[in-house]
Amino acid sequence: MDIAAWSTRFDLLSDPHRLEILIVLHQRPGIIVGDLAAAVGRTETAVSQALRVLRHQGWVSSTRQGRSVSYRLDDETVHQLLHWMGAGHS
């Protein structure tokens, strides 16, 4: 068991803003930043900063679609944790 990795996971999940972003990504894979910001009631800048942290951890991936970038949850362990917490798919 990798204690440091689990500690990092729980640290990132403990932030309510990041958790809310992860839940929306879980429910709406392929969402763009503007729509994600609207869904969580935050600015695009704040959401982009959170996404940067989550991408750095390998939890989120991005795909460029023309001028837009879409995001999706990319970590199976986090995906399963969100299910365990009760976050379903839309």
TrEMBL record:
HTH arsR-type domain mapped to chain residues: 1-90
Protein name: Metalloregulator ArsR/SmtB family transcription factor
A Pfam cross-reference name: MarR_2
Species this chain originates from: Gordonia aquimaris
GO molecular function, one term: DNA-binding transcription factor activity
Domain of life of the organism encoding this protein: Bacteria
Matching InterPro entries: ArsR-like_HTH, HTH_ArsR_DNA-bd_dom, HTH_MarR-typ, HTH_MetalResp_TranReg, WH-like_DNA-bd_sf, WH_DNA-bd_sf
Transcription keyword on record: yes
Keywords: DNA-binding, Transcription, Transcription regulation
